[in-house]
Structure formats: C-alpha cells, structure tokens
Design brief:
The structure is a single chain. With 54 residues, the chain is mostly beta strands. The chain has one domain. The protein contains no helices and 4 strands. A hairpin with a 2-residue loop joins strand 1 and strand 2. The two termini are 16 Å apart.
Length: 54
Amino acid sequence: MKKEYLSLLCCPYCHGEFEVDVHKEKEDEIIEGKLTCKKCKKEYEIKEGIPILL
C-alpha cells in the first residue's frame, strides 16, 4: 500500500482517521503493518501491501 493512500482511508466502523505502524516497507510502499483508528482504537492489519479493513 502506498503511503500517500493513507489520507484516503478511514475506519469502516466510525469513519475516524488512521495512525499507521509500519513493520515492513519497500521504497514508498507499506508491505506489512497495522492501522489503528485514532477515534475508536480498532486495529486493522496491512498484509502483503493490502489493508484488511473487514
């Protein structure tokens, strides 16, 4: 997932903004990591460059 896409995403539960914790990156892409909603604190994984928002 490209870092620039973070501003386009919001929490599917409460529509809050995300804080990102990068575990693995390559150039300007996040390969593995975690998105945490700043509002409701729900966490979503980023696996193989794809944010899992389900």
